[in-house]
Amino acid sequence: MSNQQSPLKLYLLDINSQNKAILEFFVAGAGREFYTLVNNIDHAEVFITDFDFPDARQNWEELNLGGKPSLILAMTDPEVSEGEWLSKPMTSDALIDAAKKYMPRVNELRQSDKDVNQSISNKNVTSQSAPLSHHRIGSRVASSSPPFGASRAMPDVATSTPATPATVLPQEMVGLQGRPLVNVDEGGAITLERPLEKTDSPSEVFEEAKETATEALAVADNSVSESVSLLKGDTGSAELSKANAFASLNKKEIPTTFESVEGDQEVSLTEEEILDEQRRHSPVYTRDKLSPEQARVRWQELCGSRASYMRSELKDIRNTGYNRESHLQGSLIAALRLSKQTQQVVQMKYEPYKFFVIYEDSLIVSPLDPKAPEFTMLCSNAVRPGQINLHILDSVQSKEMLDSLEKNREFAFELESFIWTTCLVSSQGRLPTDFESENQYLLKHWPNFTRMENFPFAMRIAALWHYEPNRLCDVAEKLEIPQRYIIAFFNAAMGLSLFEQDLDKVQSKLIEPPKKKRSGIIARLFSRLAGGMSNT
Amino acid sequence: MSLVNRKIIFTGPVGSGKTTAIQSISDIDIVSTNKDASDMTTKRKKETTVAMDYGVITIGKAEKVHLYGTPGQERFDFMWDILTKGGLGLILLLDNTRKDPFQDMKFYTNAFKDFIAEKQLIVGITQTDLRKSPTIYQYREWLDELGLDAPVFEVDARSRDDVSLMLQGLLLSLDPGVTV
């Protein structure tokens, strides 16, 4: 619903800095039509307090809020006769609903205030008239609150008994912080003093973040590009609103390291502290940076260079394709399954090499780097029957191997990534002999692309195959990319069992209507991110 | 120019790397509300995000995609609903060293279930260099168990490449037809 009236002037009472920042964000964005923050309690039309904040309830009860609405945040029902309980966790809808509820009543009060002001203006009230009493909601006078909207029934200021400022101030004219809200000059003229701002953030912090805050405020609204300017013109609170929205933001550097123990209070480290220590020293993950020529060579090793299969060739694939089981790939996947089933370390012996598969940790111990030419050669060679042996390690052997691994971490590789590369260099863009060209395949899970060797179009292939079931040839046609990349992906994803095995699910997905729409911003952001990257 | 649908939201528990991930990919110095952690979060971080993090990816000269990180502490969850309005998708970062990452996954996917149903989720597992288990296999199984269909990547939140790939995965999930 679009609110046609000016927003409610909202004052935040006792609220911790975190919730305050959140509310400020809400008011600057989604709730902007309904609320605007004010930093002067006398200007407020509605209040929010958090009863879970220390002494908040007591403070709220002591305040004379002139019958103006209070929204009370609390985990449990505070059971108060006045005020509206908003249970936590609160939603933007709850805040908006409350605004809609109170808007008509606040408008009534606005109108009555307008009438009173007009009356005051007409009667040329002097500074000695003490006209502030009904608006002085910041005072802690223990008088009972008038009902909401009752301020219009206040005594006519022109006819009320003038108060002597010196006798009024100490008791009545104090703000929430205990500071006087009024000053009296020598001539007896009374001026309102700006109360202490609720924000606890220094202005320089805002200045530092201002430029960025403007951007954030703009998008927080989600509908207009000039949200900051829209905050202006409302009781002069533009600066305040901007400041409130981001005044508490601190542009400090984000820590990437963590202190485990401060000072010299050295104690035995807990597991958490050990992890913190490791975080501090762990190297940032980096991917191999290949030159364009190196990348081209590597992609050829991974995906081959053959031309696309003709449809007639696909029918004869049983005779022309490659047999997974007669390559290292087949034995490696068997070792993976065995390790998964037994939850034990499995040794794969392929003379003169020994590999160890540790499914539980998603690791493989290999004497050869999967990117090394020797490994590529090993994978592409056909394996003779009996040439590779699998063996489940017993507990003693496992412990020995794992102890040894601690000292030789360079031989440990991510299991999925290793199998991915093995499948690619084994197949080199060729179809397997058991390939069914008319089968619809659906990718059940995406490969872990951040830890895999990438090749052109891999992520796009994954996305399409995950989005809807497709025959392999269809993927090539839809994406308009060379077939060998799709075959490479198919082989590697098959090796990792990432395709859906349940044919019923594939069928149901086939008839499921697409739910997502395309958007220009997605394409533009994708281009911005993927420009120059090799895997897209 | 309309600013609808130009937000990407990063969420996840305390210490999962939301602030760092935004910092890694943002074209500006991020605006953050990190404060000294004063409660149980001190066990995981000395500082934590109390309201949100904010970063930007610039496209061309004028267009921007805004990155928001939710506060990690669960008691601020009422803000999440506010942050997600108009978002493109959700990046859920899960710290593999936490006591029970599955509970974290359940909690956050439930908290954002309406948004996920309408938009798209991608899961990034962080701190896998410090603790290998649970493995990516288990995360996939958990997602299946929860009936969710989302890519899962291992991520070093400090690596721009990792965060970029995660974002690309999110975008391609939204629209498999996009090209460079």
TrEMBL record, chain A:
Residues 117-161 are annotated as: Disordered. Residues 117-131 have a biased composition (Polar residues). This is Uncharacterized protein.
From TrEMBL, chain B:
The keyword GTP-binding applies. Keywords: GTP-binding, Hydrolase, Nucleotide-binding. The keyword Cell cycle does not apply. Gene3D superfamilies: P-loop containing nucleotide triphosphate hydrolases. It comes from the Bacteria. One of its GO terms (molecular function) is hydrolase activity. Pfam families: ATP_bind_1. Belongs to the GPN-loop GTPase family. PANTHER family: ATP/GTP-BINDING PROTEIN-RELATED, GLIDING MOTILITY PROTEIN MGLA. This is Putative ATP/GTP-binding protein. It comes from uncultured Thiotrichaceae bacterium.
